[in-house]
Amino acid sequence: MTQVNADLAKSFGLNAEEWGKVLEIMGRTPSLTELGIFSVMWSEHCSYKSSRVWLKELPTKAPWVIHGPGENAGVIDIGEGLAAIFKMESHNHPSFIEPYQGAATGVGGILRDVFTMGARPVANLNALRFGDPKLPVTKRVVDGVVRGIGGYGNCVGVPTVGGEVNFHPAYNGNPLVNAMTVGIAKQDKIFLSAAAGVGNPVVYVGSKTGRDGIHGATMASTEFDAASEDKRPTVQVGDPFTEKLLIEACLELMQTDAIVAIQDMGAAGLTSSSVEMAGKGGVGIELTLDDVPQRETGMTAYEMMLSESQERMLLVLKPERSEMARAIIEKWDLDYAVIGHITDTGRIVVKHKGVVEADIPLAPLSDAAPLYRRPIAETPKPAPLGAVDLSAPLDEALLKLIASPDLCSRRWIFDQYDSSVGGQTVKRPAQADAAIVKLEDTKRALAVTADCTPRYCVADAEQGGAQAVAEAWRNITATGALPLAVTDNMNFGNPEKPEIMGQFASAIKGMAAACKALDFPVVSGNVSLYNETEGRPILPTPAIGAVGVLEDAAQAVGYGLKPGLELVLVGQTKGELGRSLYLREILGREDGAPPVVDLAAERKNGDFVRTQILSGKVTASHDVSDGGVLVAVAEMLLAGEAGAELAAEGDAAFWFGEDQARYVLAVSDANALLTAAREAGIPAQRIGHATATEKLTLPNGIAISLPQLREAHEGFFPQWFA
Amino acid sequence: MKAAILLFPGINRERDMVLAVRQSFGAEPTVVWHKETELPAGTDLVILPGGFSFGDYLRCGAMAAQSPIMRAVKAHAERGGYVLGVCNGFQILTETGLLPGALLRNAGLRFLSMDTMLRVERNDTVFTNKWEKGAVFRAPMAHGDGNYTADEVTLDRLEGENLVAFRYADGNRNGSARDIAGIFAPNLRVLGLMPHPENLVDPLMGGTDGKPLFDALAAA
Prior knowledge:
- The structure holds 2 protein chains of 2 kinds.
- By secondary structure, chain A is an alpha+beta fold.
- Chain A has 26 helices and 28 strands.
- Chain B has helices at 14-25, 69-78, 88-96, 152-160, 211-219; strands at residues 3-7, 30-33, 45-48, 82-86, 102-104, 112-120, 136-143, 147-149, 164-168, 180-184, 190-193.
- In chain B, strand 10 and strand 11 form a beta hairpin.
- Chain B is globular.
- The interface between A and B is medium-sized, with 34 and 30 residues.
C-alpha cells in the first residue's frame, strides 16, 4: 500500500504549501485516489495557477461573442443563426516524447473540445515549432508530428486547411504542437458542461479506459530532462476511427433533447470532466467505477480516475431519454455505460468494489485551487539595430530567403493533409493568407488562420504579442473576410523564473492592446508552460488562431497573380530590419528591435483593404510579413500564373524590411486604388506589374526565372526527407 | 437515376458525394446505413464514398466488404445495376470481388493529398460519356493506400478488354500498376477509382472538372 504523505504529494507535483491546503480541505490524510485528483486538478495544465491572473487582462467580449473563455471552446455569432465554435490547444510535451501519437492525440483532443459543444468540426489548423533542422532529432520529430496530424485528421474527415511552421534551435528539446479546430453549430443547439438535475444519470460514452496517459497533465506541468524519454507510457494513443464514431454519435444524439450536459474527457480524464461538470453546475456527483468500461483488468480507482485514454465523453442525461440515447450510441458501436448520478451534496464521491475511494468537497477543490502572482522580471528592451550591410544582391538574397526553412514552401507538409474532405474548401493551403471554408447550404464562408512570430516575441514580448494578433487579423483581412475573434495558445518556459513570467505578462499586454484596437476578442485558449529542457526555455510563443467571416464566399481573394495586373503596396515602408529574416538568413544576425506595431495604422489600412476587396476591385491580395515585400511578391508569382516586373526605388531594407500593416494588392486599375488610398489618408505606392513572362524582373533589371524561383522555394522539405 | 449512398462507420466523404449527386441529379440521394440488408426500392446507382471504413483496420475496405448491405450490393451488381466506388469505396469493391486487384499502401509510404490529372480511357460508358476519349481532367486525391496492384494476367486482361477507366496523366505518385487510377467491371456498370471527382463540381471550390461524371450518370 502506497503511503500518502508530503513526499508522495511532491512526486505528484504538489508543493508543501499545496499539500497543506489538501490536508486542510480534507481534514484528514487523503487516499491515493484523492491525492491523485487534487494533484491533477491543481496542476498548471488544469488550474492555470500561474497564468490566470494575467489572462484576465485579455478582452473577451463583443456583441458577437456568445461564449467566451470558460467553456470547452469559444463560441461566436457568424450570422444566419449559426455559430463558429473554436479553440487552439497545445500538445507539446507528448509530441517530443512520442511525436506521432503526441500530435495525433492533440488533434483528437481539440476536436472533442469543439464537438462536445454541439459543433460539427469543419476545419483543422496547426501551429508547429521545431528545433534546428540540422539535428537528426528534428527530422524525426517533424516526420512524426506531420504523420500524426495527418493520420488523425485525415481519418476523422475534417479538412486540415492551414497553419504555420517555424524552426529555431530554442525548440530543440521542446517542439510545439498547437492544434486548432473550428466547428459550426446552430446557435440554439449549443451544449454546455454544467451538470444539473439531482438523480440524473452520468453516462460514459466512447472508448474503454486503459492505463495510458496516467498523470499526463502532471507531465505537461514540469520541465524536461534527460529522463523524459522514460515518460513515454504517459503519452496516450489515439484512435481516430473511434473519434469519428464519437463525432457522429454525439451529433446525432444532440439532435434529440436527451442531453443535460456534456464534456469530453481530456487532460486528467474522468477526474477533470466529472469535477468540472458537477462544479460548474453547483451540484454533487457520485461515480461507481465498477461500471466504467475497462480495457485492462485489475485497474484501480486511482488509475481509472487519472487515465487519459482517448475518445471518451461524459454526459448527464435526462433519465427518461437514456434508453433512446443508448440506442444511438450503440448504433455507432461505442460503449455506453451509466457510471453514476448527480447528487445535491456538493461533493465528488468515487466508489469502487464497495469502497469509497474518494470523497472530496467540490467547491474548495476549485475555489481553493492555487493561484500565483509569480514574480516578474521584464526583458530589457533590445538595443537598437546598428548599421546593416545591405550590399547583398537582391536576387541572391531573395533566392536564399525563399529557400530557407522558415520561408520555403510547406507543400511537403500540407500534401500529407486532406484539405478538401467535406467539399467546402474554397481556398486551400498556399492559395490565400487565410484558408476559406464555406458553410454548407449558405453563401457564407469562414476565414481561418494561425500566426505568431516568436523571434519578435523573444526580443520584445509586448510588441511580439501585439504583432501575432495583428498578423492574424491581417491574414483574415487580406482575403476580404471580417476578422471576428481569437483563440490563444500561450507557449512559454518555466513560470517560476521571473524573466519567463515577465515574457508572459508582456505578451498578454501586447495582445490585449491589439485585441482591443482591432475589435478582436479572445474567446478561448490554452496555456502551456514549463517548455524548457535542461534549463533552456523556448522562444516565447503566444500562438494566435483566428476566425473571420465572409458573407459571400465568392468574394474571397487569394494571392495568386495573373498577367496584366498592377501591383500596389499599401501601408508605410520604413525598412525595419530588426529581427527580420533578412538579418538572420543573409547576415547571420538576430538583433535589434522587432518592427513596431502601429495598431491605428493596422486597423485603418486593413479596413481600407477589405473595403477594396469587397467592392470587387482587387484580384489578388497578400499581407506583407516574414521576408518583406519582395518575398510577398515572389509568393504571389509562385501561387499564380504570371511573372512580374518591379519598378519601385528601394534598397534591401525596402524590399526585405518587415514593417507591419502592409499588403500587396493586384488590381487592374492602380490609379483608382492610389486615389482611393490618398483620399483615405493611407500610404500606397505602385511597385510594378504582373506579366505574361516566366520571370521576375527586379528594379535593377536582373531577372530570376520562375522555374529557378520555384526550385529554390520547393526544395527544402523534399530534399530533407529524400 | 435513383442513387443510394452507402454509409459505413468511418466513411467521411458521404456528404461531399451527396452534394455532387444533388447538384447533377436534381434529386436527393438516399443515404443507406451499412447494417441495412436491402437497398431502397428502385435504386439504380449505388455509391460507395471515400473515408476510412472501420478505421482501415485489418485492410482498407476488408471489414466493410463483410457488412450486411454488401450482399444486397452484390445482388444489385449481378442484376446489372450501376455501382460507383470512390477511394475507400474502390477499395471496398476490390475486397468484395466486384472489381479485380487491390489497393496497396502508396509507394512513397505517405498520405497523398493534392490535385492529380486523369486521362479518360474510354467514353462509351454510362460513367464517362460526357468526356471526350483521351480527355484529361483534374481531380483531387487524398489517400494513403491508392497503389493499384493486380497480377500480370489480370492487368493484361483489363487492358485487353479495355476496362481501364482512368489513368494518372501527370505522374504516377502512388505507384499504381500501369498508371491505373480507375477500372470498370466487364459489364461497364461498376466503376472504382481512387481520386475524388465529387470534390471538384463547383467553381467556388476550384473547378468543375469532376462534374461530367455526375452529369453523365444523371442522364443515364
